[in-house]
Amino acid sequence: MTRVAMRRLLASLMAVVLLATGCGLNNGGSVPLPVAPGPAGTVPELEGVRITVGGKDFTEGVIASYLVEFLLAAAGMEVSDMSSLAGSNSFRQALVTGQVDIGMEYTGTAWMSYLGNSEPIRDPQGQWEAVRDADLAEHDLRWLPPTTVDNTYSFAMNQATAEETGVRTFSDYAELVRTDPQSAVTCMETEFSVRRDGWPGLAEAYGFDAAAVPTPIMQPGIIYQATSVGRECRFGEVYTTDGRVKGLDLVVLEDDQRFFPVYNLATVVRGEVLDAYPQIEDVLAPLVELLTNDVMVEMNMRVDVDGEDPALVARDFLEQEGLVSVD
């Protein structure tokens, strides 16, 4: 059996499992908050058309889902909400099997986790094009143009450590390790410490001795807080768009040799849906220009640090940009 045939068989089996176990994928809820059209009004071809929007159950994934839902609802579509699916694989299988019509996904996740590639493509445009072509050929999934949101790995430090060490890039960090490894104590998750696209690969790419650096292993939430204090963790593994980066006033290192994979956020639509309603791409096109790392960090922070409702955060953003209105 070819690799393509095997993937299709696994997707079909997963669909059966999801249905048999009653995971709730057949009945989406309603859009979490009401929206009205923006100045452009509704799109006649989309009025009353039913569509199911899916997404993942972490803060950024939920916000991304709501952004799509609100824009489509404001355009006149009847939207079912299936954000907050448990884990990336659940969302992916729901999309492949047609239980979800559209959602936002990361290029790096699709390339490595879903499409089975072991090496990332570190050029953002090249990574998106490779995922676009592969998913079109294998699953008839259409990747719309990507945003510049890149939720990838990095290290962060507090302001005092930044000033004391002068470290701003991973090349700076590597030099610090070579000259004074004990001052580069770096906290990380277990998985990151052994992944090829994590700690071992990073050390190889930047030319430093990973074994020389003290590396306490911690849970992600603890890493952010400990890094902000700066005693147990001079540096800490972070995700670049996590709201706690800004909330805790952390300084993120620049990956100046572009070691880490690219995880650009983009909209994915089932082919038959986009063929029937190509206007969807125009409705969602503003997200390509508007969503940046800074914008996403701000929205994530409002949820994870300030405790706000992700639906309200997403709707506020679209209203401020003049894309939807609120009665």
UniProtKB/TrEMBL annotation:
Where do the coiled-coil regions begin and end?
none
Q: Which Pfam families match?
A: OpuAC (PF04069)
Single GO cellular component term: ATP-binding cassette (ABC) transporter complex
Q: Which domain of life is it from?
A: Bacteria
Give one GO molecular function term.
transmembrane transporter activity
Protein's name in the database: Glycine/betaine ABC transporter substrate-binding protein
Q: Which PROSITE patterns match?
A: PROKAR_LIPOPROTEIN
Taxonomic classification, please?
Bacteria, Bacillati, Actinomycetota, Actinomycetes, Mycobacteriales
ABC-type glycine betaine transport system substrate-binding domain location is 50-320
